[in-house]
Amino acid sequence: MTQEPRDQALERLYEAEQRDTADVDLDGVTAKAMRIIRGVLNERQELDARIEATSEHWSVDRMPPIDRTVLRIGLYELRHEKDIPAAVIVSEAVRLAKTYSTERSGSFVNGVLGHLADEERPG
C-alpha cells in the first residue's frame, strides 16, 4: 500500500531526527512529501520557535518526537500550502498523531496547531 505524502514525510523526518542528521532518504517519496521534508528541514529552528511559543508549558525538546514532527509538518503546510484549507491541514495532523503516536497526542496536536492556524491564517 502506498503511503500518503504526509505519512512519508513524517516517517523520513522522524528517522532523520532519531539519527540526529539532516540527511534524509528521499527514495520513493512523492514530490509533495519531498517538498514538505525539505521545507521542514530548512525551517526547523523557526518552526520550533513558533511551536514552543504557542504550546503552553511544553518546550519542543520535551514533546514526544512524533508529536513535534507532526507539528512541524502542519505549521510548514499552514505557511506554504495556501491551496490547502487550514482545517484540512489540522485534521491531517491530528490523524498522523493518532495513527503514529497516542490518542492523547491527537488532542495535543489539535490544540497547538489549531492555535497556530488562527495566527498564520487569520480570518
Description:
- This protein is mainly alpha-helical.
- The chain contains 5 helices and no strands.
- The chain has helices spanning 5-18, 31-54, 65-80, 86-100, 103-120.
- Helix 1 (5-18) packs across helix 3 (65-80) and helix 3 (65-80) packs parallel to helix 5 (103-120).
- The longest helix is centred in the middle third of the chain and has 24 residues, at 31-54.
- The protein is globular and about 35 Å long.
- The relative contact order is 0.14.
What is the element layout, followed by pairings?
Layout: H1 5-18, H2 31-54, H3 65-80, H4 86-100, H5 103-120
Helix pairs in contact: 1-2, 1-3, 2-3, 3-4, 3-5, 4-5
Structural class of the helix and strand makeup? mainly alpha
What profile does the largest beta sheet have? none
End-to-end distance = 38 Å
Determine the number of helices (DSSP H or I, runs of at least 4 residues).
5
Radius of gyration, in angstroms, nearest whole number? 13 Å
Secondary-structure element order, N to C: HHHHH
Q: Characterize the overall form.
A: globular
Q: How many strand elements? A: 0
Runs with pLDDT <50, length 5+? none
Mean model confidence by pLDDT: 95
Helix content: over 70%
Relative strand content: under 5%
